Amino acid sequence: KDGILSLNGWSVTAITEKKVSWMKSGQSTKNSMEWERIEQVDDIEGLRGSWSTSDGLQCDVEGAVCSFREPANTIRLTMKDGLPALNSWRAVAIRGQSISWRKVGKELEWKRA
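Predicted structure:
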């Protein structure tokens, strides 16, 4: 609107390469928030914990390391194109009790164990 990005009554006040600052329209600075680009998998708290995958595997994530139980395998999580990645899978939604992963033509769900 009028050249200003807005979303649900919030207006952007500043954009940098790593941060977007928002203010609730017509409000004081008390009603402000910032979005920061996540650069390290370790910073994503929602990935941590024990998971059951929709393809029948069990794994544990701590920091940027995913350890599968059977068959035993450890894989390092990385950031690819701004999304957490596990091999060629990208986490497209991280919720409290589930994570949705996608790669070309396939989907995978993890549920908190």
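Summary: The two ends are 44 Å apart (CA to CA).
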